[in-house]
Amino acid sequence: MRSRLRQSPSPASDSMRQVMFGIHHNALAYAMTTLGAGMMNSIFSFYYVKLFLNKYKISEGAFHQSQVVYMIWNAVNDPLFGYIQDNSRVPCCSKRRLSILYGAPFYALTFLLAWFPWRSYEAGDWLSGVHLIVTLCAFDGMLTFVLLAQCALFAEISTHHENRLTLIKYNQVASLIGSSSVLFCGLVSENMDNFANFQSFAVVVALLACTCMLYTGFQSTSPYDCLASKATNKAGQRDGAALSLSSVFCMTKQILTQKDFVLFVSMNFFQVFLLAFCNNFTMIFAEHLIPQNVLPSFVKSIMYGAGFICPQLLVLSSQNLLRTLGYYRVILFTFYVEAGAAVVMFILGPQHYYILALFLTGNMVLIQASFSLFNLPLADIIDADLYKHKRSTPLSSMVFGTNALFTKPAQSLAPMLVVGILNQVGYEKLKDIAAVSDKGSLQELHDVMFYLVCLWYGCRTEILGESVRPAFIQSYLDTETQAFLNRSAEKSGCLVTQLYHSFVSTLFSPFMSRTSINGYLGRGSMFVFSPEQFRQLMNISQDWKSKRLLDLGAGDGEVTKVMSPHFEEIYTTEVSATMKWQLEKKQYRLLGIDEWQDTGFQYDVISCLNLLDRCDQPVKLLKDIRRSLEPSKGRLVLAAVLPFHPYVEIGGKWEQPSEFLVVQGKTWEEQVTSMANGVFKEAGFAVEAFTRLPYLCEGDMYSDYYHLDDAVFVLRPEE
């Protein structure tokens, strides 16, 4: 692949000699499909993930299911259509220009499927999942049918390197113009905030794109089309044997045994993954990581447009480099630059907003620019296959299709993995809450987007209210917490286990809650405090004992185990069946969620850890706890994730609770003060002590662990 094959001229080489007024008309006709497809594909890939996640409110389970279906269809349809186009006797399939001509209108129609909801979707609506599956499969099916024919044209119009560079040049100009659709779409629709304008713009783009591709269908020429037509007219020349299953396996095996093809596909898989990652998530990351007052909406629109336009400018300006150095060295150099820029950005951190904006844009540009050159090595592979196996016509569509069989799954894996990572730290919940525009309320999500873990235990006491300031206890990272982090890292490092967990989680997410899945798998243990931190917070000694502990929402019982040495009787509650099983294994007494309040006795300590924001009736819960505590010495240990964002998971959907606690303030300290002076006081509690701790969870294949900011209170009943 690094060196060009030297071949004698073929009939196809004359197809590039049609020059008039300095314009290669066949190259122009070829590039018109790129123009039309570029306008549609840029908008589709850039906006569809945000549309279905944010506007249609698709659930994570339905999103993953649609991506799995899309991944399978995306991989299968390329070699299927490739084989049909290379071997079919039907003119609309065997002739490249006719495939584009007849496929263009359907391609444009499927582009419009995404932008018009089938009804007004509720959060987690099953129909939005069906909508996404139909949209992805229909759009990708027509995209594959049309663009495979165009890719075959690239290899068949000419075998000369100079002519192919001319095609690349025309193609990049067309792609440059087509990619600008993202820029204009962002400006017209205010980055999809004005959805009616967005829909109108999409219809205009579909009409223009269809017209461009029809021009290719009417005007493009390939000598191999003529050869194929003559071959089909010869008696018995292309009998049904050509379409036999054995011939499919034979030709596919011949393609797969080329060393250069295998190496190219391996590299292309990761490039497709990166490209899908950038196209689908640059907009989401930029909106969360770069404040509105730093880069306003119209500047971000220009930034997004530049990410699609500048790659073509870069390729056009690199024509001399491609001629002198060759595509291999140019592509390799871009890989080095991408890796180096990522390391530098990681070291600098996310607070340098302008550098971050430049990095996000530059990353899109380099990845897209290098990907634009990938037709050159594939065309060389097609030439090598034609020469090696002495074929009368090249297997252009089959080579492109077989390449897609192994690389297209990356288009689905990228959004699946990234959405899974973001939802682990609250993206699915936070995006639907009105308060998410508040910078403080999104800090945990931003931490994961730019993995910057800091200030786990810090508290700015000067911001605390005077009434609660004396009750603050400073905590630190201790040996027990560090041991939990080390165990989490070891578990996350077992790739086979994590792949199994990820597969099972995706498979069962439509039918089971994440808590139940974690209980079944024995993963996702939580860490709120160590034994030492618990004793410090409660102001007790190591040998202190009391009678009864009730742990509400005990999960797998690991946090209960921290408190249990200090109590004679331990009671727990839990909703998840799999977590109940875990608690019974640890021999804790299980009480029903409507039973613990009416047992006939009172508790010395009740722990309510990170349950208040996941409870449908938090006010009633606090009153029940107050009534169930021993009045003189009873204590409530309560942990709450701050910033406070309550939601309830009902049937796989995130719903607002029926009772809403009023928690004011933007910072951790302000919300602590608000809860102490408002929520707890109204429920009949006074703050005895509180601290700031990281609410830790075991990690997975993406991260060693996850964390949120907890405020852990010790509350005493007050008359």
Low-confidence stretches: 1-17, 228-243, 432-444, 447-455
User: For this structure, what is the CATH class of the largest domain?
Assistant: Mainly Alpha
Structural class designation:
alpha/beta
How large is the share of residues in beta strands?
5-15%
Task: Please sum up the structure shown.
The chain has helices spanning 25-55, 60-87, 91-94, 96-112, 126-157, 161-189, 195-219, 223-233, 245-256, 259-289, 297-317, 319-325, 327-348, 353-372, 375-388, 396-407, 409-424, 427-430, 443-449, 479-492, 495-508, 514-521, 531-538, 558-563, 577-585, 618-628, 668-682; strands at residues 19-20, 23-24, 526-527, 546-552, 567-572, 589-590, 605-609, 635-641, 648-650, 653-655, 685-698, 705-717.
Description:
- This protein has 719 residues and is an alpha/beta fold.
- The chain folds into two domains: 409 residues, Growth Hormone, Chain: A (Up-down Bundle), CATH 1.20.1250.20; 265 residues, Rossmann fold (3-Layer(aba) Sandwich).
- 60% of the residues lie in helices and 9% in strands.
- The longest helix is centred in the N-terminal third of the chain and has 32 residues.
- The radius of gyration is 30 Å and the shape is elongated.
- The chain starts with 18 loop residues before the first strand and ends with a strand.
- The N terminus is likely disordered.
Topology of helices and strands:
Layout lengths: L18 E2 L2 E2 H31 L4 H28 L3 H4 L1 H17 L13 H32 L3 H29 L5 H25 L3 H11 L11 H12 L2 H31 L7 H21 L1 H7 L1 H22 L4 H20 L2 H14 L7 H12 L1 H16 L2 H4 L12 H7 L29 H14 L2 H14 L5 H8 L4 E2 L3 H8 L7 E7 L5 H6 L3 E6 L4 H9 L3 E2 L14 E5 L8 H11 L6 E7 L6 E3 L2 E3 L12 H15 L2 E14 L6 E13 L2
Parallel strand pairs: 4-5, 4-7, 5-6, 7-8
Antiparallel strand pairs: 1-2, 3-11, 8-12, 9-10, 11-12
Helix pairs in contact: 1-5, 1-6, 1-7, 1-10, 2-5, 2-16, 2-17, 4-5, 4-7, 5-16, 6-7, 6-11, 10-14, 10-16, 10-17, 11-14, 12-13, 13-14, 21-22, 22-25
